[in-house]
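Hi W., the thiamine diphosphate complex you wanted:
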Amino acid sequence: MKTILLSGNTSLSYAVKQLDVDVISAYPITPQTTMVEKLSEYVANGELNAEFIPVESEHSALTAALAASAAGARVFTSTSSQGLLLMHEILFITAAMRMPVVMGIADRAVSAPINIWNDHSDIMAQRDAGWICFFAESAQEAYDKTIQSYRVAEDENVHLPVNLNFDGFILTHTYEPVTTLDDEEVLKYAPKKIRSLVLDPKSPYTFGALGSPEYYFEAKYQAVKALEDSFDAIVKADKEYKKISGRGYGIFNAYMTDDADTILVSLGSIGGSVREIVRRMRRDGAKVGSLSLKLFRPFPAKQIVDTLLKTKSVVVLEKATSPGAISGPLHMEIQASLKTFDVTIPAINIIAGLGGREIGPEDIRIMFNKGLKVASQKRVDTIMDYVGVNI
Amino acid sequence: MKTILLSGNTSLSYAVKQLDVDVISAYPITPQTTMVEKLSEYVANGELNAEFIPVESEHSALTAALAASAAGARVFTSTSSQGLLLMHEILFITAAMRMPVVMGIADRAVSAPINIWNDHSDIMAQRDAGWICFFAESAQEAYDKTIQSYRVAEDENVHLPVNLNFDGFILTHTYEPVTTLDDEEVLKYAPKKIRSLVLDPKSPYTFGALGSPEYYFEAKYQAVKALEDSFDAIVKADKEYKKISGRGYGIFNAYMTDDADTILVSLGSIGGSVREIVRRMRRDGAKVGSLSLKLFRPFPAKQIVDTLLKTKSVVVLEKATSPGAISGPLHMEIQASLKTFDVTIPAINIIAGLGGREIGPEDIRIMFNKGLKVASQKRVDTIMDYVGVNI
Amino acid sequence: MPKKVSEIDEGFVLKTPLSSMQTKTGSWRAFRAVIDYNKCITCGICWSLCPEPAIYLKDNKYTVDYDYCKGCGICAQECPVKAISMVRESD
Amino acid sequence: MPKKVSEIDEGFVLKTPLSSMQTKTGSWRAFRAVIDYNKCITCGICWSLCPEPAIYLKDNKYTVDYDYCKGCGICAQECPVKAISMVRESD
Amino acid sequence: MPYKTVKDLPLKENFGPGHRLCQGCGAGIIARLVTKVAGDNTIITNATGCLEVSSTFYPDTAWGIPWIHIAFENAAAAASGIRAAYNAMIRKGLKDSSPNVIALGGDGGTADIGLQALSGALERGDHFTYICYDNEAYMNTGIQRSSATPYGAWTTTSPPGKLSPGQKTEKKNLVAIAVAHGIKYAATANVAYIVDAANKIEKALNTSGASFIHFLSPCTPGWRIDTASSVKVSRLAVQTALWPLYEVVNGEYITTVKVAKRLPVTEYLKVQGRFRHIVNKPEEVAKIQAIADSNAAKFGYGPLSQ
Amino acid sequence: MPYKTVKDLPLKENFGPGHRLCQGCGAGIIARLVTKVAGDNTIITNATGCLEVSSTFYPDTAWGIPWIHIAFENAAAAASGIRAAYNAMIRKGLKDSSPNVIALGGDGGTADIGLQALSGALERGDHFTYICYDNEAYMNTGIQRSSATPYGAWTTTSPPGKLSPGQKTEKKNLVAIAVAHGIKYAATANVAYIVDAANKIEKALNTSGASFIHFLSPCTPGWRIDTASSVKVSRLAVQTALWPLYEVVNGEYITTVKVAKRLPVTEYLKVQGRFRHIVNKPEEVAKIQAIADSNAAKFGYGPLSQ
Amino acid sequence: MIEIRWHGRGGQGAVTASEMLANAALRDGKYVQAFPAFGPERRGAPVLAFTRIDDKPIEIRWQIAEPDVVVVLDMSLLSVVNVTSGLKSDGIVVLNTAKDSSEVKKIFPNYKVAKADATSIALKNLGAPITNTAMLGALLKAAPVISFETIAKVVGERFDQRNVTSLKETYDSTEVLN
Amino acid sequence: MIEIRWHGRGGQGAVTASEMLANAALRDGKYVQAFPAFGPERRGAPVLAFTRIDDKPIEIRWQIAEPDVVVVLDMSLLSVVNVTSGLKSDGIVVLNTAKDSSEVKKIFPNYKVAKADATSIALKNLGAPITNTAMLGALLKAAPVISFETIAKVVGERFDQRNVTSLKETYDSTEVLN
Ligand SMILES: Cc1ncc(C[n+]2csc(CCOP(=O)(O)OP(=O)(O)O)c2C)c(N)n1
Ligand SMILES: Cc1ncc(C[n+]2csc(CCOP(=O)(O)OP(=O)(O)O)c2C)c(N)n1
Ligand code: SF4
Ligand code: SF4
Ligand code: SF4
Ligand code: SF4
Ligand code: SF4
Ligand code: SF4
Ligand SMILES: [Mg+2]
Ligand SMILES: [Mg+2]
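Structure:
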């Protein structure tokens, strides 16, 4: 164990190196690039004994990763924004083929207009793809979650791809202290496993057959079930990781939620800033709380609802929109979850930070105040609100 | 006006011909192909004075359509499944650039496993892309909605792309009577308009600039607002169309919903079958109703909720899943809509028909019975249920 | 025929090489290839060109496997000594 | 500077050709190109090679526009008669 | 060990019967030949298309060796991934032997939607063999033009009509494009010349780095020919010099099958329904004859025998 | 009307100052030249990359003529769409004059992620000119290797290291690939030879169907050169025969700028930081010299002057 | 509503037959649907097509599980497909065969059967065994769902007079066995 | 918590400086964050970088609007960027300049100012005007947030001894004006 200064990007690269990944296949895109640069360096220097495939597009990046995984290798890829969107087709295929590919996503806004800054539109548009989906709040968490991701993805009871989201620039380019494990510890926690369903002349199997109407539904159902069932493995992996590292994250970070009048639900790097505002507003007597989600797929609906049960209003802050929908992707899912569990607590949606628009301390206060207003009025005026846009 | 035998695919082609489209850019994929084949024929024979660009992929198909639209042309494209997924990146761009591209989507399951049959996974995965999104129930409706689509897309107050979904094979390949308008009537209803923001050396404008954090949010908001605001134009276009054709569809078809104990909400070609079962079950005294949605984006949440207000339970039948989510995309949105309008009627989700799995009369009865059971128990046991899968 | 979820291997993998042989595509045939061994010079051309394959070597004789012969007629067309005839399947 | 939603043209179109001129990228410069007209033979090479462009023809003289000269030094390097010198911007 | 006659081919079938290719489909002949020459120690990746769809209709698979299909655009990228996996795993002692890696794609999956992945893999020099079975259209979706559809041919998206001669463009030259990437081995092949093809497959597999084979693949419904004549028609393609047989070794072009007396292209055109509308139009036939003549000049094919 | 000196170039600037390209960026020189030669009646489509990002930072645009950016992969497809729109609208009397349509892309947007769209447009023969400004890496994202990065060059994803010489592959030959598509005009160009380049752009625009220009575009941070020397270094690329200047008219190769006495490649390598690790390794230098020698032989460049 | 199922092989035109029938019915003022069994059709492989005809608009879109009539374009299918699967007990089997009535009746003892030697008729008229147009005639004889004139017109427009002759001769020569 | 903003030009190494400072602070047992102003950096264009140093973990991720210290690597920036924007009233401006104290004080009458002629020192030691390492010395003199030894070590590891000399000489020659 040692604590070193790493950025979100280089912390991932460092973990990937320790994990002795066999194949890396990636295409550059801001703000993910410094991650693959670092990996190229490791490979060029012989610090990581892997093949780095400098593919010609993200469609091929994920394809090559999938195929290498099918051949039995431990693989890594990463991307962002337009690159993730270009992988769209192959994302679904990777999951349904049950390949334990791990991908880092430096979340970034999607075109048009072209914008290289952070929001969550890229990953939200992939929420049906069938991947396990983590969000990190810091470089430390990005490092830890990368290691956990392999453990989960390669679990015999899981065999699913995992993506790990960390906010573009805000995390990817911020250097901060990261406490790392020793190499052996990493591989002991997430050992390489021999899978039996692999492309090998010794076992002449067929991968990717056509599923006619007689078989498709069952095949799809199997993949859907696998994702639902991965929940236990995810929780367990985190617990075991805590044992060896002292760090565990749970499926979300609930901060001062027990007695909160309003709880702000968020995803990703904003969590820490929200907690700081919670502390500040609490000092002024406002009973506010924060729930920062770490696991987005499978969606821990029950656990979220349980945490929200006693509050008076919920504010879902999200850096994404679903134009023309009743509300944003995360809000819609939380709203539906509340309804499903017969909880009538009002929940509003606040869209902010699109395309890297700064969410400052005042903005977070505004959001909490909106939540407090709903809590006291017990009524929602605007379901979907925007903070920070110049209308 | 004349009534001729057309399939879903050829009815679209016929409408596109009447609409005097300037540029068609498309790539073949089952079950969309017969549509582009017909269009090729029209162009080869001089029946349609258009350029047909036989692109090398769907990514380019939509790009070329977008660019042709930016140059001021009336354009058409179409695709399905993997092709739609490959367009993913450009879908978002087309909407945010406000291009009135019209696209026919022969809805089909997505890989893996590869499957060429119908479900709605392809379009559902595009629900954040910012397009107006229609569903047709018949070849007639596909024809009518194609014409309406141009009217709406090119409306000065809209300027957004429109996609028109019609179920693969079930509609694309079924021949049935279609009553067509005369060519002049079509162009009178949906006249070609001169747009001022086009690529023309006479107006040296820049399209597709970079939107830094200072501008991106506003730009995005503008496109989101445009989609929300398109609702009125959509309703109006349908009304005016009814005036000239006698046929109007509204935003959904609500059938025997007024006194229903349970209402089954569906999308696309299954609507007619559901209504037939409503009639049959009503004969046996079961108070069931059907709501078949025609407009999916912008999502008519308020109107749907109003229609569901008096029922005792809701069954949302959908041919798509969002693995790891609380429920399927359509159900989640309806559930969230109900919650948003403080409606506590229980709503269950039934996933069926994935990958072309037949949904027969008995299956629909089963679904209604599930709804009736929830209505009488006033309690939901399983939020997401599958019908037709062999577990 | 349709399988249960649990009967499908993870990721839809097929662990059954050549399992297509369970589908007897000889049923597609309207004509059958019949080899006249009096003429056949055992050159192997028919064998090398059958797209199925529905011709195999058995006891040094190229033999048609009617479970799979789709009756395309390539073998008959390409046989250098015209040893193969295409015979209509009975009505 | 940030604009309101209503001030942005539909689809983010910019109807302002060459509006980049509002950004005076001369501020990036650490050195400035200065032409010695005693040496200059008006060949136009500097003009043809300036990436900005920050050289224009005025009254038959190639003139540096300091609003935009980024001080790259290409013009000085390429001038066939070494008529251009790069002068450090004052501290 | 070059093949001399078809009897030198291995008996073992790794592409088995029961698949659902049409009667008389050339892709079946090619898949059999490729798997025979490559042998058991081989992994195949296959782009979406007739061969893929018809050979792996779950729970049927016609393949006796490891095979994977991912999507339409990316057979070459999949091959790169498999090769990289084996490279790394062999280095780490996790695998012991290095298999042949073969990517199979139709003309659409190769010359159009898969060209970029192919170009990337060729450029990187990844060690695999790409075999394009070229039936000259998108057949799996019902005969639409591709960039490999020959000039004048009918397809459903290049229909002859008042304003159209059928396909308007000339066939994309895949071998020339592959060769422009500096690969060490590229070749054309044809089902009517099985031994020539077998030797080329073997050479390609033995090439270090990337290799490419462009294999004409007759299609009975797509070419509108009867099911028995697919090999015969393919032979005519060679004999008319519309499909010259050659290989390109380290950039050098070598003709492998010479034709002393060329047949006029009409011999090839007139037996195929897809050229029916054109075969009696002398100007159009002349254009196609010119293509053949230029091929003949380039590859040393003999004069027209009329 | 061929250009004889730079003074023949139009004065009007359609690529204006205030853009955010680096000091000394070659792409700025190219964009200015292209817009000058093409004139007002032109529509440009630009792939994502340095030029695009730096020239249209809202609300700034450096373009004086219609310009569109859609994404990274598809400048050529966009050009096809624009051309098709004009073809149809002119036929219908909705537009009166036919503009030049130019697609601009970096080496990444052309040789890698945009190659397929380019190949499709070339194959269809769509009437437009594609100009690749080749700075030999993905510069906009911070200097990663592309398939156009030359052998041995440092980039952040081809770092020299214990196991790596820098870029391991040879530069993809874009002109050869374009020519393999049978287009009527293709050429190379260089900022140190502005008049030659201007004439080529003009010829390309006047070609019916598709045309292609491969333009070396010096990049000061990416090549690790000082900002003043980008033109000088580009000239060395020609003088060493690493960037021969030629055009290909209907398939025929014509050298447009001859070099009587070639410089050794070290002259080119030693002035660039990206080759620093290699310039003192004779085996590596020899490999690069061999590339130059082979170019010299092909394009009639003179002997090495040492 | 009457529901018809067509059995043929890839390339024999079963789908076109189902469509021509629907087209004729439409002209006769009926409501119709015509559709193939969805999926890839390979040359030689058994295929299905369907036609629905009714006096009122047809809204349902489920598959036809219990047809009123099945038409078999190629007798060789009998050994591989159960053509009477789901056929209503009072349903009709329409066969293209040269076999004699007693033989045919033996194969389908429980159904009303109609038969014609469409192959011979087609060979004679068209020079090729294209039996789909011909078998429309056999169908109409067995189940006069629409007028012969209309179907003849539809066939004539889509193909040519030789096909109409083929249709007519088959119609005339069809035997209906009960 | 102390918040520092770095002003430089693309290519001058402001981002690296912010990172080296954070690295040294980390070794001194502090909690840190170092990040650039997010966006494309072009050669010559004005750029920003930031460092946060605290005794307890840093959770916030909003931008640094009100720094405690600003470091200016290149005086030519003064005419294009307002380097004191948001600077706390008791904040410090650290300048790389050869100007004399009174001149400098005139420019920033309201702030504590530190100055060093880092360019000359760098030119002397490195043969190039690479001032980022040097200016770390000026910063430390003005605001001794961490130990000189640690920063010298970090610079030495990342670069070489010449840079450490440059750092040291700048540290020693920095004048702090109040
Ligand atoms: C992204 C995408 N677009 C379109 C398709 C539809 N599609 C499947 S196979 C095929 C044609 C394949 O043509 P080719 O590669 O020539 O192979 P062939 O079918 O002719 O053997 C098409 C267009 C697809 N599967 N994926
Ligand atoms: C699909 C996709 N992948 C990756 C990117 C990120 N990206 C933007 S520009 C660029 C590099 C462009 O390189 P090149 O085309 O050579 O142009 P240059 O920047 O060198 O001028 C990359 C990788 C993107 N915008 N879209
Ligand atoms: S007829 Fe065709 S399928 Fe039958 S054996 Fe001959 S070649 Fe094979
Ligand atoms: S091709 Fe003819 S001669 Fe040769 S083995 Fe076959 S049947 Fe015998
Ligand atoms: S120094 Fe550079 S930017 Fe300035 S005028 Fe000269 S070439 Fe132009
Ligand atoms: S290059 Fe030199 S001589 Fe020529 S115009 Fe410029 S300053 Fe004058
Ligand atoms: S359509 Fe052509 S390529 Fe496809 S299976 Fe049939 S014969 Fe083979
Ligand atoms: S990085 Fe290179 S190509 Fe990009 S703007 Fe700077 S100099 Fe030009
Ligand atoms: Mg094909
Ligand atoms: Mg580049």
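Residues 241 and 247 of chain B are 7 Å apart (CA to CA).

W.
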